[in-house]
Each structure stands twice: as structure tokens, then as C-alpha cells.
Amino acid sequence: MSEARVIRLHYLLRAALLLAFALYIAHLAQQDTLHYYIAPKLARWVRLCPVPLALMALALAVQAFYGKGSALCDCEHRLPRSFVKSTALYSLFLFPLLLGFLLPDQALGSLAADKKGIILSNLGDGHPEASAFDTSDPYQQEFAELARQLYAQPVIPVYPAIFSETFGAIDRYKQQFEGKDIAVTGFLYRDGTHTDPASFAVSRFLVQCCTADATPFGMLVEADTTISLPNDTWVEVRGKLQIADYQGQEVIRIKAVSVTPVSAPSTPYIYTSPDSIAAWHQLLAAQEAAKMAK
Amino acid sequence: MRRCSLSDGLLFLLDVAGLTPFRILPLLLPAAFLVVALVFWLPELTALLDNTYLGSFKASFIGILLEAMPFVLLGALLSSLLSVFIPDALISRWIPRRPVPALLFACLLGILFPVCECGMIPLVRRLIHKGMPVYVAIVFILSGPIVNPVVYGATLTAFRTHPELVYARMGLAFIVACLIGLIIYVTVRKSPLRLSIKSLNEETHRQDTRGGKLTAVFVHTADEFFEMGKYLIIGCLLTSAIQTFMVRESLAAAFDRPLGAYVFMMGLAFVLSLCSTSDAFVAATFLHTFPAGSLLAFMVLGPMLDFKNSLMLLSLFKTKFALYLFFLILACVFVGSVLMSVWL
């Protein structure tokens, strides 16, 4: 077989692989499952990827079928030369496609939280704010304002859209929030070393770009009775906020009144909000509107 | 010269299938493996599906791959546009001749092209072939992913309470990149590139491509994609395996010594292969466990050197030069961040 034919065949295989990648990404976008892997701000760009991928596949196919023999010289020596190398190369590209198409989309859970180490308190510099919802640090203004808004609620709601900000605000003003009622939804996570079945954490993964940087956040929960639900069950926890000591660190803990299993949310991860105060007002307004509709 | 038509193409396919089965075997083998594997595994597949390790592995593997995809495509596309439309002389005319202005120019280039490090390598390879000196290209590769407005903004968001760490990151990246550029300018004389493309060859072939320049652009892009894609996929495989099986806290405890923290954070930066726009958020979670200097080392080293881009660098440069470069990066970042920690 002449050199040009080998190149044509390589091009056809590559076109097929590129098309498969384009289809896979389009499939994820259409099924609305891209958010299992990447944050919305990046998903915008990933959604565009099938276009260049398909164009590349088309260009390669055109070359393979219509290209002149003389144009098909592998002048940059980039095509694999041997049996083993070609097999290895194309198997490598097939692997993510197989993984993607054959296995179900599954969000990160307790296992990943175990490996990454769950965060129960995120006070970098270690000093919680003492005075009531006031701060001299301009960077903390947003948290102080959110804390004030949250405190005014009879039961503090933890909206997924501003989960990490709410967590941060309560964490910073633990003392003030002690004894307040809270309702929060997340997946159930038990530390491998923590054997007490009545204690667990209600957790969410915060994703900045993609699942590689997913960071598990959680609030400790203490229930009166043993909770027999398995790890990774989605639960809604209602109870009172307390301060607890966990491995020498002051963390918030919920003294649970009720722990109810709920269905998994359509978006398993949480993301940072550019302006949590604006998001908070929007969420409240939406809730009011929903109440009026009823 | 053979005539080219659709029938010709189809004929060639038949030809291949009928006459030379042994020659196409290597290409069909992956597909054959696939069929066999599927038939054997299908009954066990349901058991595999329950495996939480596999689910966790898939989530991080596909996540990293999808995250890199737009950047790799952008890098490949830019590189191929450069090769098709920009004449060689143009780029070497833009670059200042004397080393110091050239180094500063390379740092500024990073501000203009905020491409993630995975998109950087194909672009830089093309720029080198178009006449960019190697030391300028190295500075661009090293500083580009850090010294740019997008990463500055992301780091500031992650370290709102410690803005000095943000300036330290930008500053150290700038210093390390320029220093390494200078060292390479002084010590390396021969071309360290793995393969040298003859630009003359390209010139003649360009005219022959079917469908004009547009097809040529996309064929080149596909070449780049497969060239870089293999390293990207291997890098993603290793990284996501580590993400799935490595327990961070117990490892962190093992390195709980003054300089151990630096070694640990630099090792972590290397194996996690995070995007430079998101690594600051991961670094911020270590704020209460480790000294600020080690977080700085994490944030400067990661974008310059990690699993996936070290494989890409190895494909771009000769092994000896690539190892020399890795050593320079590790040494400069380590010393630089230890020195900087005095001010932090």
C-alpha cells in the first residue's frame, strides 16, 4: 500500500474520532449533563467545541477522499509509523469516548470528599469576627451584609446558588448565629474515622472550573437518634446552629430536629456567585412571587 | 499525477479492504479489541457501574479533559492560522533583537493572549518555527498562564483576605520566567527542538491542499489536536487516578516540617494539573495548614510545570533540554518562594 493511502486511512480514522468527540460533547450539552464535569462559566466555551471539531473532521475527510496524492505527504512526520504506535494512539483517543458513552454520568460524592478532605470551617486567618455583623475589612463587607440579611430570617435558608457565601457568612459570625434555626440540603457524608452513627456532615462540592478543583464543604450534624441512611444520600436537615470543637478547630454544627431524605438536585455541585447580595434579593423576590401565586 | 474524485476515494477504500488486509490491521485493531472487550464485559458491566471509584475517576477524568478542550482547540487553531496565513519573516521582525526587551516583550505577550497552558504549547511550537528565539518562547510559556488579567482576577477572588499573596504570585512568576529566559539565552546555543519542520516544504504543499486555505487550516488544526491530545489524555489519566486514590490529609501530615510544606505543595501542584484560573481556590483551602510561601510555590509552579504540560514539553523539546528546563523551573520556584516568604 502506498504512503498516500496509509495517510488517507489515518485521516479517515482521525475524522471519525473527531466526529465522535464532537458528538459526545453535543450529547452532554443536549442532555444538560455538562455540569457534572465543569462549571457553567466554562461550559459556555465547551459547548462551542463541537463546531471546530466537526469542521476538522470534515476537512480531514475531504483530504482523505479528494486530496491529491502529492499533497498527502506526511512532511512533518506526525503520523505514527508502526503497528504498535498507531494502535496505542487511537486506543488512547478511544478511551475517553468509551468512558463517556458507556458509564453513566455520576457526580462526585463521599469517596472524593474523603480523599480531598472536607472543609468544615474556612476561616483562613483563624479569627472569627467578634462584633455583630460589622467589619473593617472592605473584602469582608459582602459577608457581613449577607450575614445581616440571613440573621433577619426566622429559619435561615441555605440556597444552592449562594451556598458557599452563606456557609462563609455563618462561619465568620458563628457566635451571633448560635441558636438560630437553619434548613440545609446536601449529601450525607461520614468521615471514615468518625464512627458515631448519629453524627455526619451535610455536604456539597464547590466547583470553580472543573471537577479537578472540586472542594467539599460541609456542616456537621448531630442527630438525637441513629441515622441509618447510607453515605451519599441527599438529605434536608433542619435544626439549631451550635458551635462545636472538631479536631481542635471551632466549627459550626447543626443540632438536628429532622433529617429527611430528598431527591438529588439536578445540579449536584455549587458554584461561587459574583454578587451574593444581589442573588439573595433575587431569590427572596422569587420566593415571594411563588407564595403570591399560591 | 492521479486524478482525484469521489470514486477514486471509494475505490481506494475497497482497494485497502480487499488487497492488503495485513497493512490495515494495525488501524483496525483498536476497534477489534473494543468489540471483544464489550462482548466479554457486558455481563459484568452492571457490577462495574456500581463501583464508586470508577464513577469518581470518570467524573474527574472527563472534567479535566473537557476543561482543557476549548484551550487546546484554541491553541491548535491559532497555531494553524499562524502557519497558514502569517509569513515567517513577520514574527521575527516584531521581536526585539536585544535579549532584555525581548524578555519583556514575551511577558507582555502573555497579557495579550490569555491562553491556558494546555493551549500554549502548539502555539509556541509554531512561533518558534516562525523564527521566535527559543528563550523568548520559554518566557512566554512560563509567564503566559500566570501573568495575565484573568488569572490575576481569579487569584484576587480566592485570596480576598491576603491581597499581598496575589501580587507575590504575579511578581514571582514574572521574575522566575525572566530569570529562566536569561539563563537559557546564555547557556543554550543549539536548537533544542525535537523536530525541525522545513518551512520551504510547507510552502509548496499549501498550494496543493484541496478546498483552499480553509481546509488547510482545519487539517493543520487536527494534526495539532492529535499531537497534543495524546499527552493531554495521558496527563488526565494520571491526574485523575491520583485525585481518585490519593488521600490529601494524611500526606500533608507526613510533610509537616518547615521546608516539607514547600516540597509537598510543589508536588501537589505537579500531580493535580489544575488550570491556572482555578488553582488559587484550591490553594486557599490550605491557608490554615501551610505557610503562605508554600502556597505561593504551589500557585507559581502549577501553571509552569505539571503532569500534562511536562509531557507536552517533552514532545516539543529534546529530552535533555526538557529535563534541564524542569530542573530550572523547580529550583527557581523553590528558592524564589522561600525568599518571598520573608515578606509575606
UniProtKB/TrEMBL annotation, chain A:
Residues forming coiled coils: none
Keyword set, alphabetical order: Membrane, Transmembrane, Transmembrane helix
Stored Pfam families: DUF1980, DUF1980_C
Top-level taxon of origin: Bacteria
This protein's record includes keyword Cytoplasm: no
Residues in DUF1980 domain copies: 13-118, 135-271
Transmembrane segments: 12-30, 42-66, 87-104
NCBIfam families hit by this protein: TIGR03943 family putative permease subunit (TIGR03943)
Name the UniProt record assigns to this protein: TIGR03943 family protein
Lineage: Bacteria, Bacillati, Bacillota, Bacilli, Bacillales
